[in-house]
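Predicting holo structure, iron/sulfur cluster bound.
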Amino acid sequence: MFPPSIKHHCGLFGVYGHPDAVQFTYLGLYAQQHRGQESAGICSCDRGLITRQAGMGLVTDVFDPPILAKLRNPIAIGHVRYSTTGSCLQTNVQPLLVNYALGQVAVAHNGNLINAALLRDQYEQHGAIFNTTSDTEVIVHLLAKPSHLDRADHLVHILTHLQGAYSLLFLLPGRIVAARDPYGFRPLVLGRMGNGAIVVASETCALDIVDAEFWREVEPGEVVFITEKGVSSKWIAPRGSVGPAYCIFEQIYFADPSSDVFGENVHQVRVTMGGRLAKESPVDIDMVTPIPNCARCAAMGYSRASGQAYGRAFTVSHYAGRSFIMPEQDMRDLAVKMKLNVIKRNVRDKRLVVVEDSVVRGTTTRGKIGALKKVGAKEIHLRVASPPIRYPCYFGIDFPDPSQLIANNRTVDEIRDYLGVDSIRYLSLEGMLSCVKHPPDHYCTACFSGKYPMEVDHPVSKLAFEPDQLKMFE
Ligand code: SF4
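Done. Tokens:
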């Protein structure tokens, strides 16, 4: 379940060297549906020709498995998308597939390019025509630029022009190229299948579904070439010259708990964060309960560390539709009601710690707290397993405008009053960073700390490339 207040970004998957590459890509995208629900696409290659199946909606809506089963193409890449730059439009569905001077190329992107508007302006001033409103299209223009084509490593070279967050998959006739920006904001991993096929995925949960073994992460700044000759690497920037700046929000909220992200299991990290939260902010209560579903791991950790009982306050309907794409707040509130039922017997007259993974706008959390109060909860103490979100993200996460962030310019007491709880405590920044395995300066924490890992000169908003007519309807 995805709260409406944070939009996910994108998921990537690719297979090289298996006759069922297209079907496996379908499964790999399905396993990563939590990373994007607006659109899905697969490009596959057989005997030098790349074809594309793509559309708006969930993986199961877009693709027809019997049709995919007929595509015995041995190389494929796929993408699930939630738009962070570029609106929810058919033209923005990825992978993008274009023809340029060197032939066909398909591109799938997870992340956000902070200099995309600048690059697009430059190209448009020289007469370039863009077909999409997505930041990703600048990459194909960079590829096609005649002065770039002359370079031996032109694909690696063009990546040096990009600023911001990008994990990328390129499909060219007979090869896949996987690249991760030098900061490594977004995850990207390699796996191997039994027959020797190579798999690339945003998350390891997608390797599991196709029975691929985790091999290794694509390193920050690495460009991996997968061809019939094998796997080789080149580097966008000298290794270790910048970053890393792993997005810590992947651990808190985005990634699937079964995945290993940045070298450690997401479920375990969230349990540890919940335990740390219990130590930092104890309170005497009857039951620890999560806001479903994302906070379950953290609530488990809180319960274990505090020695207080874990119980369920809500049941979740799996059939209630997708509130996160409903445009109006009151519609989203209604969708939340349709999804969650309160287990009255577990809540009435009880003193509760309610654990939430993060609070963005606060509107949906407030609705859920209201539902608990309505059935007679005696006390509600909200414990948030991450620090207050006060700053925007420019690297691929669609947080609302800072003025809509509940923690922006509000004191903790004001937030407590707005949410209607008896107390609220957040996990400290230091506490959060003590729960992950890499040194603190290897993570991006900008939305919490305001410390951006790179200068953001030309931030790109979701509507940066939209015609005015579209802006009117946002
Ligand atoms: S600003 Fe926050 S959400 Fe964005 S990359 Fe950094 S940690 Fe992740």
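Residues 266-280 form the longest helix (15 residues).
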